[in-house]
Amino acid sequence: MAAIERSPATADHSKFKALKGPFETASEVTAACLECHTEAAGQIKETTHWTWLYKHAETGQTLGKNQVINSFCGMAVTNEPRCTSCHVGYGWKDMRQPPPEADSAVDCLVCHDTTGGYKKFPTLAGDPTYIPREWPKGSGNMVQPPDLPDIARNVGATGRANCGSCHFYGGGGDGVKHGDLDSSLVSPERSLDVHMSPDGADFSCSDCHTTWGHSVSGSRYQVNAKDTLGIDTPGHTDLSRASCESCHGDQPHTKTKLNDHVDKLACQTCHVPAFARGGVPTKMWWDWSTAGRLDESNQPIATYDEAGHVSYLSEKGDFRHGENVVPYYAWFDGTVEYTMVDEQFDIDNPPLEINRLDGGPDDPASRIWPFKQMRGKQPFDTEYKTLLATHVFGADDSSLWSNYDWPKALQFASEKSGLPFSGNFDFIETRMYWPITHMVPTADQALPCSACHAAESRLAGIGGIYMPGHSSNSWLNRIGWLMVALTLAGVVLHALARVVFGRRKQS
């Protein structure tokens, strides 16, 4: 697959007087950008990237920053100093309130920096640092302020590193959350991702996630699980399809038999044989219930597994990481339903599914998809029977980070988030599902037929399918063997008849 050619830029930003600076803050850079790009801030403010809210058309649920508690750090509202370092804006310090209204609060540079020198600082509500600051605390590593005039004069189209500066690091670190998104995709080998590799198609994220007015297509809340429209026309006319079919069509193989699978299998099911394949591990298990242990000197504990991945932190509990992970497979029609923060659940029947995948074998809109299944244990209110928010990032004395006091930490998180807390809590095992769609290697690394058509099939346990070599039915097996026996008997009788009648003719 050859790299695509992009049309040259129509403007040289280094020649714009407004971008020569000096700039005391990144907001001043935005103000300069808006002198020409007059509608950009308003467009950004209409997107999920700005509001962190998503109104689900199928389920009616409003999802986002303070409606869902995920299987990682819980929710953004109780951990703003860290979470807002990935917001496409500046100054959002209290997420119980809407983002700042000023147009200059929009961050242009996080998406359009081409120098690699622009970094948001983890505790400054989306701003970079403007003075040298130590990070992480106690490390001795000093983070220097970015050269804002140089960055402003070198803005350009978004690239993998821009999108990845946030999406690769969700959940608290590189590769932690998604499994198929991590820093290895900034410049991957073809064997890791043939689309994003500089030696392959060299796609940027926006080549698939097309945009219109800064609104980006593709969503994990509502996935296009089965694109029936086929190849998109030049110009991406429907402006919503980040799907394999929009480039490859719905009959992508030269072998007809392989195309027979397209109706029931997502392309990713065969073409992403494993995730977390680029040398960056992904988190597969997070047990909050073990948090709070200290060493003999009453100091926090940090332990690591044989591969060097963190396996325990006093402020967060136990972890398990994985690399080259075989996905979890399920029928999926694209709709994901979430356990909301005020939703009561059956505490006697764990595990609790944080999100639930809609679809089934009888649904023509469904296909079998690959997922990362995130597992763990999370706190819940035993009286209200709802999940509880956690608080692990910040300097608050009430936080678990500081004193490892669970009741006090949960009470603080409750007050911070506005969620009720009875004071009684326990831990419940949870599951959360993340669709796998990146890290597509070259076609020769796609799954062989035997990966599914075998007794030890990847699709073991998937309902509504019958596959030769995998599925078994005792009566069908008996009938099959009877047919084999009858066929063999017929061949033998036919051979005997030829011998007998051949002798008669000779005599």
How many H/I helical runs? 14
Number of strands: 17
Shape designation:
globular
Low-confidence residue ranges: 397-402
- Helicity level, as a percent range? 10-25%
Distance between the termini: 71 Å
- Summarize model confidence as the mean pLDDT: 89
Q: What is the C-alpha radius of gyration, as a whole number of Å? A: 28 Å
InterPro entries: Cyt_c-552/4, Multihaem_cyt_sf, Multiheme_Cytochr_ET, Octahem_Cyt_c
Pfam families: Cytochrome_C554, Cytochrome_cB
Domain Cytochrome c-552/4: 32-112
Keywords: Membrane, Signal, Transmembrane, Transmembrane helix
Description:
With 507 residues, this protein is α+β, with helices and mostly antiparallel strands. Among the domains are: 22-156, no CATH class; 282-453, no CATH class. Helix content is 21%, strand content 15%. The strands form 5 sheets. Strands 7, 8, 9, 10, 11, 13, 15, 16 and 17 form a 9-stranded mixed β-sheet that branches. A two-stranded antiparallel ribbon has the order 1-2. Strands 3-4 form a two-stranded antiparallel sheet. The termini are far apart.
SSE blueprint and pairings:
Elements: H1 26-33, H2 40-44, H3 48-51, E1 53-55, E2 62-64, H4 80-83, H5 109-112, E3 133-134, E4 142-143, H6 148-152, H7 160-167, H8 205-208, E5 211-212, E6 215-216, H9 245-248, H10 256-259, H11 267-271, E7 282-287, E8 302-304, E9 310-313, E10 317-322, E11 328-332, E12 336-338, E13 352-353, E14 355-357, E15 367-381, E16 386-387, H12 400-403, H13 406-417, E17 425-435, H14 474-506
Parallel strand pairs: 7-15, 13-17
Antiparallel strand pairs: 1-2, 3-4, 5-6, 7-10, 8-9, 9-10, 11-15, 12-14, 15-16, 15-17
